[in-house]
Amino acid sequence: MSDKPKDSLFDAPTMGEQERMVEAILFASAEPVTVRELNDRMPHGSDAAEALVYLRKRYEGRGVNVVKVGDAWAIRTAGDLGFLMQKETVEVRKLSRAAIETLAIIAYHQPVTRAEIEEIRGVTVSRGTIDLLIEMEWIRFGRRRMTPGRPVTFVVTQDFLDHFGLESARDLPGIKELRAAGLLENRLPPGTMPGPAGAEDDDDDEVIEGQSELFED
Predict the structure, then answer these.
(1) Section 126-139 average pLDDT
(2) pLDDT at residue number 158
(3) Of 1, 129, 145, 182, which is least surrounded by CB within 10 A?
């Protein structure tokens, strides 16, 4: 009869097995996992902290690494290979008619103040409309006017010109092209921009998709 004790059901798994368990948990977890959470999931007597030391070393120099995130751990792409995970996507943004009209006024009358935009449109320009165009990086702040209150002006950006294939604002289409695109009403005199008279600007106005159509011929 052998004197070698039999393995108990309550014995902790070997360190190699614990390492595999930690690897499986981290691989399947969307969020970083703490050592305490690892120990709670693993069999009694396991030492997740020690298993992490071995696992981290095994992944050194690989395409993915075991990294510490705050007080938790995760499997992440190696830092020097992050560029492989980048993906360029075309984001379709929606502009209200109010935003399109405001953008057109800025493009044709720059540098232009908010008060001048409202005078041309005949309506109040909401802050959300201006904020959206700035967020899209199609307009930016210009120089302040040397008039009472020193109001800030707005101008279009290089990104705006690049998006529409323009070398400069001088290459913008003329009045006929804008009217053909439905951006100018025929009853309005040249040099003015459309706007529902007597109404306040509303970001929930008719939504226009396909930004590239804004200044198409």
Answers:
(1) 89
(2) 81
(3) 1
| Contacts of 105 by beta carbon, 8 Å cutoff, 6+ apart | 112, 117, 120, 121, 193
Cβ atoms < 10 Å from Cβ of 164: 18
User: Distances from the Cα of 1 to the Cαs of 7, 137, 216, in angstroms?
Assistant: 16, 82, 93
Residue intervals in the chain for CATH 1.10.10.10: 15-80, 95-213
pLDDT band at 205 (very low <50, low <70, confident <90, very high): very low
CATH no. for 95-213: 1.10.10.10
Q: How confident is the model at residue 128 (pLDDT cuts 50, 70, 90)?
A: confident
Burial track 46-71 (b if 16+ CB lie within 10 A, e otherwise): bbbeebbebbbeebeeeeebbbeeee
Whether residue 202 is predicted with pLDDT greater than 70 in this model: the reply is: no
Per-residue pLDDT of 23-36, as tens digits, reads: 999 999 988 999 99
3-class secondary structure per residue, 146-213: CCCCCCEEEEECHHHHHHCCCCCHHHCCCHHHHHHCCCCCCCCCCCCCCCCCCCCCCCCCCEECCHHH
